[in-house]
Amino acid sequence: MKEFEKVIEYKFNNQKLLKEALTHSSYANEHRDKKIECNERLEFLGDAVLSIVVADYIFENCPELPEGELTKLRSALVCEKALYKFGKSINLGNYLLLSRGEKNGGGADRSSIVSDAFEAVIAAIYLDGGIEAAKKHILRFVIPEIKNHNKKPFKDYKTSLQEIVQKNPGEKISYRLVSESGPDHDKHFIFEVLLNSNVIGKGGGRSKKEAEQNAAREALELMGY
User: Fold this and answer.
1) In 3D, which of 88, 85, 66, 89 has the Cα closest to residue 77?
2) Contact at 8 Å (CB) between 210 and 219?
3) Catalytic residues
């Protein structure tokens, strides 16, 4: 556990919390006579702490993203795939207490086990050192992912939609403003995209261009692209 503390750059005041975070249910069941606590309850709490820290950070640091994109980004950062990647980066599986059967079956590298333990460690840090300690730990993994996300090239959904529709002569794409709200410094627009006279997508944004792009993106998604 001391080695793991060095890896995560956090020293626990209560070592029991760390041990519980690293204890899989299979190990607790295998040593039932010792009444060992597994990490399932900590996992539950860690999931909530992770979600609020990530939501707070991207809300403050990604002002250009509309609500729908914020939701997608948060989901990408807190999903099992992402947590498994974070856990693997610190070799979390090597520090887990697993039953003999689970260990022999490759449990230390199983996505669900590693990602759940990652959440449990978050909860342990939160209970031991408070929200700021947990936030520091979480953002160490999350910020690089957000930077990679922001480096992705801009996708011109309007052009993509136009190119698809042009394959069918006679079909026409147009955009229609549905609503406009908010003060001048913080406007929000909602646009519909129409194929001939039929609405095929809707999107919002802080500018008309952004709203049109989001409407085209939804249309492409509904069309299966």
Assistant:
1) 85
2) no
3) 47, 119
**Residues listed for the chain:** 225
Rounded distance between C-alpha atoms, residue 2 and residue 19, angstroms: 11
Spatial distance between the Cα atoms of 100 and 198, rounded to a whole number of angstroms: 60
DSSP for residue 93: G
What is 152-211 written as a DSSP string? SPPP-HHHHHHHHHTTSTT--EEEEEEEEES-GGG-EEEEEEEETTEEEEEEEESSHHHH
Q: What is the pLDDT of residues 138-190, one digit of tens each?
A: 999 999 988 877 655 557 899 999 999 988 888 999 999 999 998 887 889 99
Strand partners, 199: 194
Model pTM?
0.68
Cβ neighbors of 53 (< 8 A, separation 6 or more) are 131, 134, 135, 138, 139, 142
* Residue 42 CB neighbour total at 10 angstroms: 25
Dist CA 12 CA 3 (whole Å): 12
pLDDT tens-digit map of 112-134: 999 999 999 999 999 999 999 99
Tokens at 209, concatenated: 């261009």
Copy the structure tokens of residue 142: 């999350």
